[in-house]
Amino acid sequence: MKRIAIVEDELFMREELSGILQKADYEVEEISEFGDAAKQLLKLSPDLVLLDLNLPVSSGFQICREIKQKSSIPVLVLTSRDQLQDELHALNLGADEYLIKPCRKERLLARVSNVLKRYEGRQNLLEGPECLLDRQTYTLYIHNSSVVLPRNQGKILEMFLLHGEEAVSKEELCMAIWGTTEFIDENALQVNLTRLKKTLAGLRMRRQIVLVRGLGYRFTEEEPHEA
């Protein structure tokens, strides 16, 4: 059963949408706290996000941007904002569909179905700048080519792509690779980071793994301060 997350601050509308989707045999998750909605959605990892734009604390635009920077979760914007500039802005941020409410339930369900069909088989793909990473096989797709990364390199890259421009701590990287931070020689982490750096450089990826003192590492286009 496909799982759809609804991000809507109006209770009546949220309940109505939930009922429509449940009757169409979708599992529904309702988001009602909007300050950290993007983090909630990334943790839930639903098959589709139904997103309003006029939200308290954090706008739908910002939520869409954060989701699309860190995942390939499809986003269908459902909003009362009917200006072309709003639609274009949402689509430029990565939204997959833009619907103006109120709309007939048949139209909504048709758009939901179409977006889900477009994403079939892509649940394991993690989108990053200029690349895609298959999180099951650690196949990296870049510049019209692909390469299967060794498991440790794949797990490190996965962490960087999930964090976007945020720094990833050494502890988080160790947990991703070995499932623990105990008894891990830091040299072992450095060896894996160095190997991934060489792999990415060989693939002509513009982004680099950069040391951030006191925080860990960041995956960015910034020039590294140290070799």
TrEMBL record:
GO terms for biological process: regulation of DNA-templated transcription. Signal peptide: none annotated. The modification 4-aspartylphosphate is found at residue 52. The lineage of its organism: Bacteria, Bacillati, Bacillota, Clostridia, Lachnospirales. InterPro entries: CheY-like_superfamily (IPR011006), OmpR/PhoB-type_DNA-bd (IPR001867), Sig_transdc_resp-reg_C-effctor (IPR016032), Sig_transdc_resp-reg_receiver (IPR001789), WalR-like (IPR039420), WH-like_DNA-bd_sf (IPR036388). GO terms for cellular component: cytosol; protein-DNA complex. This is Stage 0 sporulation protein A homolog. It comes from Schaedlerella arabinosiphila. Residues 123-221 form the OmpR/PhoB-type domain. Residues 3-116 form the Response regulatory domain. Keywords: DNA-binding, Phosphoprotein, Transcription, Transcription regulation, Two-component regulatory system. May play the central regulatory role in sporulation. It may be an element of the effector pathway responsible for the activation of sporulation genes in response to nutritional stress. Spo0A may act in concert with spo0H (a sigma factor) to control the expression of some genes that are critical to the sporulation process. Residues 123-221 bind DNA. One of its GO terms (molecular function) is transcription cis-regulatory region binding.
